[in-house]
Amino acid sequence: MYIGRVTATVTSTIKHKLYDGQKLLVVTRLNLDGGESDQYDICLDDVQAGVGDVVLVLDEGSSARQILRKRGTGPVRAIIVGTVDQITLQT
Asked: Which CATH superfamily is domain 2-83 in?
């Protein structure tokens, strides 16, 4: 699980049936200082996030598929499970 920023949307005309009606977003991982790293995932959006939003990503395939259990099984590795309003680091 990690915190990231939505940096782009993904459009696909041919896809697995699990993705029908679902939004795919590119999420770039954030460092502890809030800066963007070089790592990113293409995530299924379960919270209606948008470009620029800071989000919580579950990036463990089996856990992500458990969230989608009601909708069926399929090729899911990462899913956005929350939007982040504030981050407070204690030193």
From this structure: EutN/Ccml (2.40.50.220)
